[in-house]
Recover the amino acids of this structure.
């Protein structure tokens, strides 16, 4: 394989309120390669969105990266001065958000917002940028791009806004596109269109896509590789095929069993994970899933990164190498 | 089931909103919807945003007065009643909303949240209330001790359990569930879906389940209706509708639903172009502008075709993978 374009190493993000420091993630580690779609999956609060925001230095006032590094092309984004980060942000790495309404300025026309990045980063003149913007909108499947250019965000439907948002994000031909739940607010038939669009973008521009989602279905449809997060940590990663067809971590397995599918036996009860994510998980030593794990009783709770071959790894106890849950 | 009388029966229900500055522009959110729900049955309604499924749920609760059609609960017509008469009947039909956070009063303890409707409607004495609360909490799988807590102290899944306990406190004939699991994480969603199944089995709970997650609806529902732009386009048993879809829209919806099964990646499917609505379809089939199976003039035929076993569809062109009936 080629070198990764982005490497996140033992990332620790903490939130501060007054003097109190609360770690949100630690031990987040993954690599992103050019031209691949990497899915970061986990339930709410697992730290997947903060991880994404931290890559672009968008944590805001309360959050801070307190450890680890984010290597983009070998340079550490964590230690990069704001000014230089500005050159990367929206240019080489760009992002699309779930909440499209809040990620566009309601008082500027789509056209103005779309061309802003190109004029700033690529130093394009307005007519040139506008021409490219129209082209981009057409490519994302907007039927009357000239009309959309003159529209304000509220005049477009959710699916249209997400398309415009994607056009905006790819305007400067980024090498990495971070998409945080880009289809969660959209209808299924529109979601399918947006997913196809992201895939085409990857194929045509060789863009690396970091896709953040809570939906295993989206992972199964989109991912080349998967990183599963639980309670602020990565617990499993590997190719989509090996993680989804042979999950090793009990959490990944539980997550997959909890999702109802259309062809499941409806008389069967859905599997649900007992208990909930511990609130002060950062203070726990060892495995954070232990209390909810079907193997928790017979496990020492001392996880290590197990190499399962083919780039598939899981952060679990080696003494359960048989890899089967106790309950089945 | 058809031999007994339905718990709730809806005939030709329609809702037209007036909007625009002068109220001259009209939006037909729900149009000519009819169905019956029988005792102990869960009736699922699926569709995308704007299809009218939430408006339908609100009309069943008489939170919105239908502009046409009737809602009949156990033989009693609801839509013609006055507000006061309705209030007296409200214990018989209850609702659970998607956002449990905003449907519970943040300043009240769970105990008061659950007892308030019972005391208001005189279904129990203040002295029995504690006993009832304990039983209800047990029913929805919450420990007794939570009665003294406030809503913000709970997770989303637990709050949804409180909402269910409150809805069930009046022993309603039917519970309207509007996207009850859509805001929840998968592992929690599984718990609530299991709970709904349990309540159906142990208490013969009758419900209308509105959601956009197809697999969740399929899991809890006996029968399902698929809505598109205000109309029911296909209805039947859960397996008939989702395993043998007849309507092209149902097919497309199923195809669009991401499957967690890796083996199904890249399966052949219909990718719809465009979005719902927008284009003028006047009185014909609202789906015709996006339909891959459209034939000359087919959009004018909106009658529901019987496919046997209570399976009806406004179109049969998606049957057998698109070869038609």
């Amino acid at each position: 394989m080629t070198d990764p374009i982005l490497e996140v190493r033992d990332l620790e993000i903490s939130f501060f309120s007054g003097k109190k420091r609360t770690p949100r993630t630690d031990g987040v580690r993954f690599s992103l390669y050019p031209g691949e779609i990497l899915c970061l999956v986990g339930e709410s609060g697992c730290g997947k969105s903060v991880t994404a925001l931290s890559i672009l230095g968008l944590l805001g006032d309360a959050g801070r990266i307190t450890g680890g590094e984010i290597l983009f092309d070998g340079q550490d984004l964590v230690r990069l001065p704001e000014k230089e980060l500005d050159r990367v942000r929206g240019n080489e790495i760009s992002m699309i958000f779930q909440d499209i309404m809040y990620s566009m300025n309601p008082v500027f026309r789509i056209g103005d917002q779309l061309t802003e990045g190109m004029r700033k980063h690529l130093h394009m003149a307005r007519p040139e940028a506008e021409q490219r913007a129209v082209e981009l909108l057409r490519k994302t499947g907007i039927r009357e791009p000239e009309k959309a250019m003159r529209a304000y965000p509220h005049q477009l439907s959710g699916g249209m806004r997400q398309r415009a948002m994607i056009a905006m994000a790819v305007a400067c031909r980024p090498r990495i596109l971070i998409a945080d739940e880009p289809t969660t607010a959209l209808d299924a038939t529109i979601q399918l269109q947006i997913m196809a669009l992201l895939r085409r973008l990857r194929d045509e521009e060789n863009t690396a896509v970091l896709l953040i989602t809570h939906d295993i279905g989206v992972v199964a449809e989109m991912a080349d590789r998967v990183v599963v997060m639980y309670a602020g940590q990565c617990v499993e990663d590997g190719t989509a095929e090996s993680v989804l067809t042979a999950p090793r971590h009990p959490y990944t397995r539980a997550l997959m069993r909890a999702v109802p599918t259309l062809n499941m036996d409806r008389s069967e009860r859905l599997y649900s994970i007992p208990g909930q994510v511990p609130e002060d998980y950062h203070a726990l030593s060892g495995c954070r899933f232990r209390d909810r794990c079907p193997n928790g009783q017979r496990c020492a709770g001392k996880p290590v990164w197990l190499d399962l071959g083919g780039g598939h790894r899981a952060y679990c106890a080696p003494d359960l190498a048989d890899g089967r849950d106790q309950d089945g | 089931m058809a031999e007994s009388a339905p718990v709730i029966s809806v005939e030709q229900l329609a809702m037209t909103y007036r909007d625009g500055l002068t109220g001259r522009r009209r939006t037909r959110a729900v149009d000519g919807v009819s169905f019956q729900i029988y005792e102990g049955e869960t009736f699922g309604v699926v569709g995308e945003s704007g299809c009218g499924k939430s408006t339908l749920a609100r009309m069943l609760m008489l939170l919105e007065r239908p502009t046409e059609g009737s809602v009949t609960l156990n033989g009693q017509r609801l839509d013609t009643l006055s507000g006061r008469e309705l209030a007296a009947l409200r214990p018989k039909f209850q609702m659970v909303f998607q956002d449990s956070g905003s449907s519970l009063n943040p300043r009240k303890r769970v105990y008061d949240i659950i007892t308030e409707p019972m005391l208001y409607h005189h279904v129990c004495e203040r002295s029995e209330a504690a006993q009832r609360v304990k039983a209800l909490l047990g029913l929805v799988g919450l420990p007794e001790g939570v009665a003294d807590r406030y809503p913000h102290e709970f997770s989303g899944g637990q709050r949804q359990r409180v909402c269910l306990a409150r809805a069930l406190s009046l022993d309603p004939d039917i519970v309207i569930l509007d996207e009850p699991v859509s805001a929840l994480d998968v592992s929690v969603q599984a718990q609530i879906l299991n709970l709904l199944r349990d309540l159906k089995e142990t208490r013969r709970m009758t419900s209308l389940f509105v959601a956009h997650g197809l697999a969740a609806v399929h899991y809890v529902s006996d029968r399902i209706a698929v809505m598109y732009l205000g109309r029911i386009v296909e209805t039947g048993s859960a397996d008939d509708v989702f395993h043998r879809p007849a309507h092209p829209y149902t097919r497309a919806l199923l195809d669009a639903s991401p499957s967690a099964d890796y083996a199904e990646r890249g399966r052949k499917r219909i990718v719809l172009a465009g979005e719902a609505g927008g284009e003028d379809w006047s009185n014909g089939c609202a789906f015709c502008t996006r339909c891959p199976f459209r034939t000359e003039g087919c959009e004018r035929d909106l009658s529901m075709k019987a496919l046997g076993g209570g399976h009806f569809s406004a179109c049969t062109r998606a049957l057998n993978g698109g070869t038609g009936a």
Notes: The first strand of chain B starts at residue 8 and ends at 19.
